[in-house]
Amino acid sequence: MGSVCNDFLLVAAVVWVVVSSGGAQAQLSPAFYATTCPNLQGVIRSVMTQAVGRDPRMGASILRLFFHDCFVNGCDASVLLDDTPTMIGEKNAMGNANSLRGYEVIDAIKSRVEAACRSTVSCADILALAARDAVNLLGGPSWTVPLGRRDARTASMAAANANLPPASDSIGNLVARFASKGLSLRDLTALSGAHTVGAARCSSFRPHVYRDANVDPGFAMFRRRICPASGGDSNLSPLDPTSPNRFDVSYYRDLMARRGLLHSDQELFNGGPADNLVRLYSSNGGAFNRDFAAAMVKMGNIGPLTGSAGEIRLNCRRAN
Asked: Is residue 208 annotated as part of the catalytic site, yes or no?
Protein backbone atom coordinates (compact mmCIF):
# COMPACT_ATOMS: atom_id res chain seq x y z
CA MET A 1 0.00 0.00 0.00
CA GLY A 2 2.88 2.36 0.81
CA SER A 3 4.30 1.86 -2.70
CA VAL A 4 0.94 2.65 -4.30
CA CYS A 5 0.64 5.79 -2.19
CA ASN A 6 4.17 6.87 -3.10
CA ASP A 7 3.46 6.26 -6.80
CA PHE A 8 0.35 8.44 -6.56
CA LEU A 9 2.21 11.22 -4.78
CA LEU A 10 4.96 11.18 -7.40
CA VAL A 11 2.51 11.40 -10.29
CA ALA A 12 0.58 14.14 -8.49
CA ALA A 13 3.83 16.06 -7.98
CA VAL A 14 4.67 15.70 -11.67
CA VAL A 15 1.22 17.02 -12.59
CA TRP A 16 1.77 20.04 -10.36
CA VAL A 17 5.22 20.79 -11.78
CA VAL A 18 4.04 20.54 -15.38
CA VAL A 19 0.83 22.49 -14.89
CA SER A 20 2.50 25.23 -12.87
CA SER A 21 5.40 25.69 -15.26
CA GLY A 22 4.10 28.84 -16.92
CA GLY A 23 2.59 29.94 -20.22
CA ALA A 24 -0.64 28.53 -21.63
CA GLN A 25 0.00 25.28 -19.76
CA ALA A 26 -0.51 27.05 -16.44
CA GLN A 27 -4.15 27.59 -17.37
CA LEU A 28 -4.84 23.85 -17.32
CA SER A 29 -6.16 22.49 -14.04
CA PRO A 30 -7.43 19.09 -12.89
CA ALA A 31 -10.39 20.95 -11.30
CA PHE A 32 -11.35 22.88 -14.44
CA TYR A 33 -14.84 21.31 -14.68
CA ALA A 34 -15.39 20.77 -10.95
CA THR A 35 -18.44 23.05 -10.86
CA THR A 36 -19.48 23.25 -14.53
CA CYS A 37 -19.50 19.48 -15.20
CA PRO A 38 -18.89 17.61 -11.94
CA ASN A 39 -19.85 14.18 -13.30
CA LEU A 40 -17.60 14.42 -16.37
CA GLN A 41 -15.03 11.81 -15.43
CA GLY A 42 -17.66 9.29 -14.38
CA VAL A 43 -19.48 9.66 -17.70
CA ILE A 44 -16.27 9.12 -19.68
CA ARG A 45 -15.23 6.16 -17.54
CA SER A 46 -18.61 4.52 -18.07
CA VAL A 47 -18.47 4.74 -21.88
CA MET A 48 -14.83 3.66 -21.98
CA THR A 49 -15.54 0.67 -19.73
CA GLN A 50 -18.21 -0.50 -22.17
CA ALA A 51 -16.05 0.14 -25.25
CA VAL A 52 -12.97 -1.66 -23.92
CA GLY A 53 -15.14 -4.48 -22.58
CA ARG A 54 -16.53 -5.06 -26.08
CA ASP A 55 -13.16 -4.73 -27.81
CA PRO A 56 -9.99 -4.56 -25.69
CA ARG A 57 -8.01 -3.31 -28.69
CA MET A 58 -10.15 -0.16 -28.59
CA GLY A 59 -8.20 0.91 -25.52
CA ALA A 60 -5.02 1.02 -27.58
CA SER A 61 -6.84 2.82 -30.39
CA ILE A 62 -8.07 5.64 -28.13
CA LEU A 63 -4.58 6.02 -26.65
CA ARG A 64 -3.15 6.26 -30.16
CA LEU A 65 -5.76 8.88 -31.14
CA PHE A 66 -4.56 11.05 -28.26
CA PHE A 67 -0.89 10.66 -29.24
CA HIS A 68 -1.62 11.49 -32.87
CA ASP A 69 -3.65 14.51 -31.79
CA CYS A 70 -1.02 15.98 -29.48
CA PHE A 71 1.89 15.55 -31.89
CA VAL A 72 0.17 17.65 -34.58
CA ASN A 73 -0.28 21.29 -33.56
CA GLY A 74 -0.81 20.31 -29.92
CA CYS A 75 -3.62 18.58 -28.00
CA ASP A 76 -6.52 20.37 -29.68
CA ALA A 77 -8.74 17.54 -31.01
CA SER A 78 -7.82 18.48 -34.60
CA VAL A 79 -7.36 14.77 -35.37
CA LEU A 80 -11.12 14.27 -34.89
CA LEU A 81 -12.17 16.75 -37.59
CA ASP A 82 -13.62 15.33 -40.80
CA ASP A 83 -12.43 16.76 -44.10
CA THR A 84 -14.52 19.53 -45.64
CA PRO A 85 -14.59 21.03 -49.16
CA THR A 86 -12.19 23.71 -47.92
CA MET A 87 -10.02 21.69 -45.50
CA ILE A 88 -7.97 18.52 -45.88
CA GLY A 89 -7.56 17.34 -42.31
CA GLU A 90 -5.46 14.79 -40.45
CA LYS A 91 -7.58 11.65 -40.74
CA ASN A 92 -6.14 10.64 -44.11
CA ALA A 93 -2.53 11.64 -43.45
CA MET A 94 0.12 8.96 -44.02
CA GLY A 95 0.27 7.84 -40.39
CA ASN A 96 -3.50 7.88 -39.93
CA ALA A 97 -5.30 6.68 -43.07
CA ASN A 98 -6.89 3.22 -42.72
CA SER A 99 -5.20 3.03 -39.34
CA LEU A 100 -6.66 5.36 -36.69
CA ARG A 101 -9.90 4.15 -35.15
CA GLY A 102 -12.14 4.86 -32.20
CA TYR A 103 -13.81 8.01 -33.51
CA GLU A 104 -17.24 6.57 -32.78
CA VAL A 105 -16.27 5.99 -29.13
CA ILE A 106 -15.35 9.66 -28.77
CA ASP A 107 -18.66 10.54 -30.49
CA ALA A 108 -20.54 8.42 -27.93
CA ILE A 109 -18.72 10.08 -25.04
CA LYS A 110 -19.34 13.55 -26.46
CA SER A 111 -23.06 12.82 -26.84
CA ARG A 112 -23.32 11.74 -23.20
CA VAL A 113 -21.26 14.70 -22.00
CA GLU A 114 -23.34 17.20 -24.00
CA ALA A 115 -26.51 15.76 -22.48
CA ALA A 116 -25.06 16.36 -19.01
CA CYS A 117 -23.18 19.64 -19.58
CA ARG A 118 -24.14 21.52 -22.73
CA SER A 119 -21.38 23.40 -24.58
CA THR A 120 -18.96 23.03 -21.69
CA VAL A 121 -16.39 20.27 -22.24
CA SER A 122 -13.96 20.26 -25.16
CA CYS A 123 -13.34 17.27 -27.38
CA ALA A 124 -9.62 17.73 -26.59
CA ASP A 125 -10.25 17.19 -22.87
CA ILE A 126 -12.56 14.25 -23.57
CA LEU A 127 -9.79 12.60 -25.58
CA ALA A 128 -7.21 13.23 -22.83
CA LEU A 129 -9.45 11.65 -20.18
CA ALA A 130 -10.50 8.76 -22.43
CA ALA A 131 -6.83 7.94 -23.13
CA ARG A 132 -6.09 7.83 -19.40
CA ASP A 133 -9.06 5.52 -18.78
CA ALA A 134 -8.06 3.32 -21.73
CA VAL A 135 -4.67 2.65 -20.16
CA ASN A 136 -6.09 2.03 -16.71
CA LEU A 137 -8.85 -0.29 -17.96
CA LEU A 138 -6.19 -2.47 -19.63
CA GLY A 139 -4.34 -2.83 -16.34
CA GLY A 140 -2.04 0.18 -16.60
CA PRO A 141 -1.57 3.16 -14.29
CA SER A 142 -3.91 6.07 -13.71
CA TRP A 143 -3.00 9.72 -13.32
CA THR A 144 -4.54 13.13 -12.71
CA VAL A 145 -5.33 14.84 -16.04
CA PRO A 146 -4.96 18.66 -16.21
CA LEU A 147 -8.01 20.07 -18.04
CA GLY A 148 -9.11 23.24 -19.77
CA ARG A 149 -8.07 22.60 -23.37
CA ARG A 150 -10.19 24.04 -26.15
CA ASP A 151 -10.80 22.65 -29.63
CA ALA A 152 -9.19 23.66 -32.90
CA ARG A 153 -11.42 24.93 -35.69
CA THR A 154 -9.21 23.50 -38.42
CA ALA A 155 -6.76 20.68 -39.14
CA SER A 156 -3.89 20.07 -41.54
CA MET A 157 -2.88 16.93 -43.40
CA ALA A 158 0.49 18.51 -44.18
CA ALA A 159 1.15 19.11 -40.47
CA ALA A 160 0.26 15.51 -39.66
CA ASN A 161 2.55 14.18 -42.39
CA ALA A 162 5.39 16.34 -41.08
CA ASN A 163 5.01 15.58 -37.37
CA LEU A 164 3.90 11.97 -36.89
CA PRO A 165 6.83 9.55 -36.46
CA PRO A 166 6.78 6.82 -39.12
CA ALA A 167 7.54 3.21 -38.26
CA SER A 168 10.79 3.57 -40.23
CA ASP A 169 12.24 6.21 -37.89
CA SER A 170 15.73 5.74 -36.45
CA ILE A 171 16.45 6.35 -32.78
CA GLY A 172 18.09 9.65 -33.74
CA ASN A 173 14.99 10.82 -35.58
CA LEU A 174 12.72 9.69 -32.75
CA VAL A 175 14.76 11.53 -30.13
CA ALA A 176 14.72 14.69 -32.27
CA ARG A 177 10.98 14.50 -32.94
CA PHE A 178 10.15 14.06 -29.28
CA ALA A 179 12.62 16.74 -28.20
CA SER A 180 10.90 19.19 -30.55
CA LYS A 181 7.73 18.61 -28.48
CA GLY A 182 9.53 19.11 -25.17
CA LEU A 183 9.75 15.37 -24.48
CA SER A 184 12.94 13.67 -23.28
CA LEU A 185 14.54 10.33 -24.11
CA ARG A 186 12.91 8.96 -20.96
CA ASP A 187 9.51 10.23 -22.14
CA LEU A 188 10.07 8.70 -25.58
CA THR A 189 11.01 5.32 -24.15
CA ALA A 190 8.15 5.28 -21.65
CA LEU A 191 5.51 6.46 -24.15
CA SER A 192 6.67 3.83 -26.64
CA GLY A 193 5.55 1.32 -24.02
CA ALA A 194 2.01 2.07 -25.21
CA HIS A 195 2.87 -0.57 -27.82
CA THR A 196 2.37 -3.17 -25.10
CA VAL A 197 -1.24 -3.09 -26.35
CA GLY A 198 -2.82 -2.88 -29.78
CA ALA A 199 -1.86 -4.08 -33.24
CA ALA A 200 -0.05 -2.85 -36.34
CA ARG A 201 -0.80 -3.27 -40.02
CA CYS A 202 1.40 -5.43 -42.23
CA SER A 203 2.41 -2.38 -44.27
CA SER A 204 3.96 -0.88 -41.12
CA PHE A 205 6.04 -3.87 -40.05
CA ARG A 206 6.85 -5.56 -43.39
CA PRO A 207 10.17 -3.74 -43.93
CA HIS A 208 11.38 -4.68 -40.45
CA VAL A 209 10.63 -8.41 -40.58
CA TYR A 210 11.87 -8.83 -44.16
CA ARG A 211 14.92 -6.56 -44.34
CA ASP A 212 16.29 -5.65 -40.90
CA ALA A 213 19.09 -7.70 -39.36
CA ASN A 214 18.24 -7.01 -35.70
CA VAL A 215 15.22 -9.33 -35.60
CA ASP A 216 14.89 -12.74 -33.96
CA PRO A 217 14.69 -15.17 -36.96
CA GLY A 218 11.81 -17.20 -35.53
CA PHE A 219 9.83 -14.07 -34.75
CA ALA A 220 10.43 -12.72 -38.27
CA MET A 221 9.41 -16.02 -39.87
CA PHE A 222 6.10 -16.13 -38.02
CA ARG A 223 5.32 -12.49 -38.87
CA ARG A 224 6.04 -13.15 -42.54
CA ARG A 225 3.24 -15.72 -42.52
CA ILE A 226 0.87 -12.95 -41.45
CA CYS A 227 2.43 -10.38 -43.75
CA PRO A 228 3.42 -11.58 -47.25
CA ALA A 229 6.14 -9.82 -49.19
CA SER A 230 3.42 -8.17 -51.27
CA GLY A 231 -0.28 -7.76 -50.60
CA GLY A 232 -2.09 -8.14 -47.32
CA ASP A 233 -1.25 -4.60 -46.23
CA SER A 234 -4.15 -4.51 -43.75
CA ASN A 235 -3.31 -7.82 -42.06
CA LEU A 236 -2.84 -7.20 -38.34
CA SER A 237 -0.27 -8.46 -35.87
CA PRO A 238 -0.20 -7.62 -32.15
CA LEU A 239 2.54 -5.17 -31.21
CA ASP A 240 3.12 -7.25 -28.07
CA PRO A 241 2.24 -10.90 -28.81
CA THR A 242 2.90 -11.97 -25.21
CA SER A 243 -0.04 -10.04 -23.72
CA PRO A 244 -1.66 -7.89 -26.44
CA ASN A 245 -4.57 -6.71 -24.28
CA ARG A 246 -2.65 -6.14 -21.05
CA PHE A 247 -0.80 -2.93 -20.24
CA ASP A 248 2.44 -4.34 -18.82
CA VAL A 249 6.21 -4.46 -19.41
CA SER A 250 6.34 -7.41 -21.81
CA TYR A 251 6.89 -4.96 -24.70
CA TYR A 252 10.31 -4.13 -23.26
CA ARG A 253 11.14 -7.78 -22.72
CA ASP A 254 10.25 -8.41 -26.35
CA LEU A 255 12.65 -5.64 -27.42
CA MET A 256 15.46 -7.26 -25.44
CA ALA A 257 14.74 -10.53 -27.28
CA ARG A 258 14.78 -8.68 -30.65
CA ARG A 259 11.04 -9.19 -31.04
CA GLY A 260 9.95 -5.60 -31.59
CA LEU A 261 7.34 -5.55 -34.34
CA LEU A 262 8.22 -2.18 -35.86
CA HIS A 263 11.62 -0.90 -36.93
CA SER A 264 11.08 2.12 -34.69
CA ASP A 265 10.30 -0.16 -31.73
CA GLN A 266 13.49 -2.16 -32.04
CA GLU A 267 15.50 1.05 -32.40
CA LEU A 268 14.89 1.57 -28.67
CA PHE A 269 17.05 -1.48 -27.92
CA ASN A 270 19.74 -1.62 -30.55
CA GLY A 271 22.95 -0.46 -28.92
CA GLY A 272 21.68 3.09 -28.55
CA PRO A 273 20.82 5.66 -25.86
CA ALA A 274 17.52 4.06 -24.80
CA ASP A 275 18.95 0.59 -24.05
CA ASN A 276 19.33 1.15 -20.31
CA LEU A 277 15.79 2.49 -19.97
CA VAL A 278 14.44 -0.56 -21.81
CA ARG A 279 16.36 -2.77 -19.36
CA LEU A 280 14.95 -0.80 -16.42
CA TYR A 281 11.33 -1.00 -17.55
CA SER A 282 11.58 -4.67 -18.52
CA SER A 283 12.24 -5.58 -14.89
CA ASN A 284 10.56 -2.75 -12.98
CA GLY A 285 6.85 -2.26 -13.68
CA GLY A 286 6.61 0.43 -11.02
CA ALA A 287 9.25 2.56 -12.73
CA PHE A 288 7.51 2.12 -16.08
CA ASN A 289 4.08 3.04 -14.69
CA ARG A 290 5.43 6.17 -12.99
CA ASP A 291 7.39 7.33 -16.02
CA PHE A 292 4.55 6.55 -18.43
CA ALA A 293 2.02 8.51 -16.34
CA ALA A 294 4.41 11.46 -16.04
CA ALA A 295 5.12 11.41 -19.79
CA MET A 296 1.40 11.32 -20.61
CA VAL A 297 0.87 14.45 -18.52
CA LYS A 298 3.76 16.17 -20.33
CA MET A 299 2.45 15.10 -23.74
CA GLY A 300 -1.02 16.31 -22.81
CA ASN A 301 0.44 19.76 -22.24
CA ILE A 302 1.81 20.16 -25.77
CA GLY A 303 0.41 23.39 -27.21
CA PRO A 304 -3.09 23.44 -25.73
CA LEU A 305 -5.59 26.05 -26.83
CA THR A 306 -6.85 27.85 -23.74
CA GLY A 307 -8.78 30.95 -22.70
CA SER A 308 -10.57 32.41 -25.70
CA ALA A 309 -8.56 30.47 -28.32
CA GLY A 310 -10.37 27.82 -30.35
CA GLU A 311 -13.86 26.75 -29.31
CA ILE A 312 -15.89 24.09 -27.52
CA ARG A 313 -17.11 21.93 -30.39
CA LEU A 314 -20.65 20.57 -30.13
CA ASN A 315 -19.73 17.78 -32.55
CA CYS A 316 -16.16 16.50 -32.38
CA ARG A 317 -16.11 15.83 -36.13
CA ARG A 318 -16.75 19.40 -37.24
CA ALA A 319 -16.21 22.98 -36.19
CA ASN A 320 -19.24 24.84 -34.86
From this structure: no
Over the stretch 132-177, which tens digit does the pLDDT of each residue have?
999 999 999 999 999 999 999 999 999 999 999 999 999 999 999 9
**Predicted confidence (pLDDT) at residue 96 exceeds the cutoff of 50:** yes
Bridge partners (DSSP) of residue 201 are 236
pTM above 0.85, yes or no: yes
Task: Tell me the pLDDT band of 5, cut-offs 50, 70 and 90.
Answer: very low
Quote the CA–CA distance of 262 and 267 in Å, as a whole number: 9
Q: Is the dihedral of CA 58, 60, 63, 67 positive or negative?
A: negative
Instruction: Among 17-31, 44-58, 66-80, 241-255, name the one with the lowest average pLDDT.
Output: 17-31
Residue 36, helix vs strand vs coil: coil
**How far apart (Å, rounded) are the C-alpha atoms in residues 106 and 127?**
7
Pair 94, 166: CB distance under 8 Å: yes
CB 117 within 8 A of CB 33: yes
CA atoms within 13 A of residue 62's CA, in its CB half-sphere: 34
Please check whether residue 158 is in contact with residue 73, taking contact to mean a CB–CB distance below 8 angstroms: no
Catalytic residue (choose from 68, 195, 208, 263): 68
Q: How far apart (Å, rounded) are the C-alpha atoms in residues 299 and 74? A: 9
Residue 19: how many CB atoms within 10 A of its CB? Answer: 21
As a whole number of angstroms, the distance between CA 12 and CA 252 comes to 25
Note the pLDDT of residue 6.
45
Residue 275 · residue 255 · CB < 8 Å: no
E-strand ranges in 53-168 read none
Residues linked to residue 315 through DSSP beta bridges, in sequence order: 318
